[in-house]
Amino acid sequence: MSDTALPGPKGPAARNFFAALQLDTRLLGMIGAFIVLCLIFNVVTEGRFLTPRNIFNLTIQTVSVAIMATGMVFVIVTRHIDLSVGSLLATVAAVMAVVQTDILAHPDALGLGHPAIWVLALIAGIIVGVTIGAFQGWMIGYLGIPAFIVTLGGLLVWRNVAWFITSGQTIGPLNETFTMLGGIGGTLGESASWIFGILAVTLVLWLQIASRRRKASHGFPVKPVWAEVTLGAIISIAILGFVGTLNAYHIPTARLKRMFEAAGETMPEGLEIGYGIPYSVVLLILVAVAMTVTARRTRLGRYIFATGGNPDAAELSGINTRFLTVKIFAIMGGLCALAAAVASARLGFSTNDLGTLDELRVIAAAVIGGTALSGGVGTIYGAILGALIMQSLQSGMAMVGVDAPLQNIVVGVVLVLAVLVDIVYRKRTGE
Amino acid sequence: MDTPLVEMKNMCISFGGVHAVDHVTVDLYPGEVVGLLGHNGAGKSTLIKILSGAYKADSGEIMINGEEAHIHSPRDARSYNIETIYQTLALADNLDAASNLFLGRELTTPFGFVDDDAMEAETRKIMSKLNPNFKKFHAPVKALSGGQRQSVAIARAVYFNARILIMDEPTAALGVHETQMVAELIQELKKQGLGIFLISHDIHDVFQLCDRLAVMKNGQLVGSAKTTDVTDDDVLGMIILGKCPPGATPGPGALVDEEVVG
Fold first, then answer.
1. What is the complex's ipTM, to 2 decimals?
2. How close B90 comes to chain A (CA, Å)?
3. Of all helices (H) and strands (E), which one includes residue A150?
4. What residue segments make up the domains of chain A, in order of their start?
5. How far is the alpha carbon of B109 from chain A, nearest alpha carbon, in Å?
6. Which terminus of chain A, N or C, has less C-beta within 10 A?
7. Under a CB-based contact definition with an 8 Å cutoff, are residues B53 and B73 in contact?
8. Which of residues 322 through 351 in chain A touch B, CB cutoff 8 A?
9. Closest residue to A297, CB basis, from B73, B104, B114
10. Is the separation of the CB atoms in A392 and A378 below 8 Å?
């Protein structure tokens, strides 16, 4: 936690500096590793890795796995595992696709292109995802079947339920509004992105001040003011820098021209419009905030971590650990539904192999992000960062032109090394 | 002092045909410490886990303040102000002291969110009384020493106005100084009118701290006695042989005289 000593041969000045900021040193390590990774790829690709365009693509490619990884943190923290997320994603995507293209778009229903279709399809998907998740959680919590087995079964069952729902066909094209969830087809645009960024900065600073006031009112020690200011400044710059980068990726001129032609106008010469933040990334940010609040500030989150740390103690404290398992897997199912919406919207179609091997990516993201399989330890932001690191590694190697088999070998090795580093780190800090 | 705080009558529980607790009857009065003694596997911990809601008895009656109580879960037990300090301490090692102290009973803000600062403030308050040297409020309890962990477990039991306290081997993992601290705490709680069940292996502890004692063997009650009416050797005889001395009230598990002779 915050008051442990920093590892490594740092001078006393550096130690004091970081100690005063009271940052999670493991988070710093991960961010450091991520930055180093990006810089290496940037050098090797001669500057093509850290372009607004590539960063934009990286973020939208990460969203689906990252959304599921936040739920996997809860699952792994309580010493369970969920191998069915990729298949569940396929089933939910199939349901949403059928609902929007066959059922709602039917002339007797809402009709093709109705503005309410996307949200109804999404709601249907979330209901299906939560129900399946809760059912699996019930089998684990109340029937006592190990999560590994239940979800291994789920891996086979849901992949093929998806196949049945669609009779093996690819369903699409999906509703136009729905596909805006996918990434490049739906972005906030420049002004709205700046507003979003400024709101985020305001919120962060307000939370920082509120927390400091609350601590002071209880008479607890608070960080020095300069540390608070430094921290606030770093976070603000990071948020606004991210928004600026996504805004700097401009819509290609040819596409812009077509958009103007579609609207029946001519495009002014030399006009440039940035994409801004994709809706899918907004969704991920909302999920991340909601899941972090759940983990840190609700009883549910507290019980999840307590149960992960010592299931017997949790039970003796009057926590209903069985029902807790149902809730955790229901959340996981709901997040699979959101991820399914993003993944199918990004393709514009629902295919049977959607989400294949995602269970492994999701678990790897959570684990690289510092979630311990022994339970009780894990963070939401870590899992998202883990997903981002995995995706960067994969697409970076693709850009460099590493052979496909070698790419997977590297990802596998990195996964094992990341866990080793984490174990060594924990031993040294005594956490 | 006429109505017992707790009366457990004819408690039975068996696991897969083994009678872990077999028709045991014990009682506890306010301001009294009752020691439960016996070998490993004699059924002391099991008996006490019925009272704390961790196990459900097969048969038997629990009376609290003379009224029948229905205890089916740890939550029920807490609603009768029964608090337990388990031998294993039952702490979530990955959480800090405040989270453990309030586990299952978190303080919340008006919006329903967990109020960590308020809980930390309360924890600091009670710790300054119980263990003034306690400083590691932000470390997970796994980073604490045995004594510090023990004081977290005790704080949890004491904080919520317990009326009935169950202590399972409270001093087993402690050093001399910390054992003394627990002894003083027990005297203090007695004065406040709590009833305490103390499970212990240490006969010396029992004689020092308890008013009465009850001995179990093979799931049955050998007998119970005031600590002033029996000697160390008497109690050892009860634990090892199941022989009930003249100063004690024999239970169903007491050896009948003929068997001793024969």
1. 0.86
2. 4
3. helix A147-165
4. 12-186+278-429
5. 10
6. N
7. yes
8. none
9. B114
10. no
